[in-house]
Amino acid sequence: MLWLGPVQSAEAGDAPFFCCAPCVRRLEALVSSYNRRGVVVDENPVTSMFARTYGA
Fold first, then answer.
1. Which label site among 8, 11, 22, 50 has the fewest CB atoms less than 10 Å from its CB?
2. pLDDT value at residue 16
3. Which superkingdom (predicted)?
């Protein structure tokens, strides 16, 4: 398990965020994929990345 840092929630405060090695590799792939697409100024980068990745 790898500590990635704290996460924050408007409803629940903050907590530590841990991921296993396969999940870290998946997150790296998502970030790389997102960065290859470029950033649109008006988009929220987190929700946009997941929407494009998962078709939401």
1. 11
2. 93
3. Bacteria
